[in-house]
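Our consortium's second objective concerns turning raw sequence data into structural hypotheses that experimental partners can test. To show how far this objective has progressed, the report includes one record in full. It was chosen at random from the queue rather than selected for favorable results. The single chain below, 244 residues long, was entered without modification.
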Amino acid sequence: MKVMAGAANLAEFASAIGVPESAVIAELKAGSEEAYAWLVGEFHQPVYSVIYRILTDPSDAADTTQEVFLKVFRGMKYFHGQSSLKTWIYRIAIHEASNRRRWWFRHKAKETSMEPSDAAAHSFSGPVNAALVDKHKSPFENVADHEVQGKVEEELRKVSEPYRTAVVLRDIEDLSYEEIAEITQVSLGTVKSRITRGRDALRKRLTEYAREVGPELGLDLARLSFGDEPSAQVFRGKRIEVTP
C-alpha cells in the first residue's frame, strides 16, 4: 500500500468504508510518520481523558499518556490484530494508569493529597465549559449544566476502582460492553457487574445533591437511576474531555 501523503489523508483513508484496519496497521508497522501522526491525533485526547479520571492528577496523567504512546510505538511490531487497534491502545492505557496509581499509593500517598490540584481544576473546567455551551439554552441553563457536570465528575472520582474505570469507559467514553471486556481482560458478566456497581455508587453519592439543588437547577432525581439511557442523561449526553 502506498504511504499516505499526510495525516489528514490517512484519517480519511482510515474512515473510508470498506478499507480494513489492517491497512492502517500495516502503515504503522512500516514506520509511516503520517500514520503515527494520525494515531496520536485520533487517540491522544481519549487516552488522556481515561487516564486522568483514574489518576486525577493532570501532571501524572500527561506523563502516563506519553508513556502509553511510547509503548504503542515500540509495541506495534508485536501487534497482530488479536483485538482492534482501539481496544489494544485502551488496554495499554488502563494498564499504565493502574501501575502509576499503585506506585503513587506506595510512594506518595502519605505526602500528597488525593484532591485534584488547582491546575487540574483549571484544565478540566475549560474544555468542559466549551463542550457544554448550548446556544439554544439560556445562560442560567448553561451554568446549571456546568455545575451538574462538575459535581458528577467530583463524585465519580470518589467511586472505587475498578468500578470507576468501568463507568468511565461505558458512560463517558461510550465503549461497548465487549470492548470494555477486551480492554480490562475480564468476562462480559464482570464488566456488566462493575458498571452496575459503579453506577449505583455514583447514584448514591449524587442523590442528596439532587434533592438539595435539583429543583433549582432543573435536575430530576429520577435521572439518577442509572442505566444506559438515564446515565447518558445525567452526563447530559456530552462527551466530557479533559485537556492536558
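The partners drew two points from this record. Residues 188-217 form the longest helix (30 residues). The chain has a mean pLDDT of 74. Both points have been shared with the crystallography group to help prioritize constructs.
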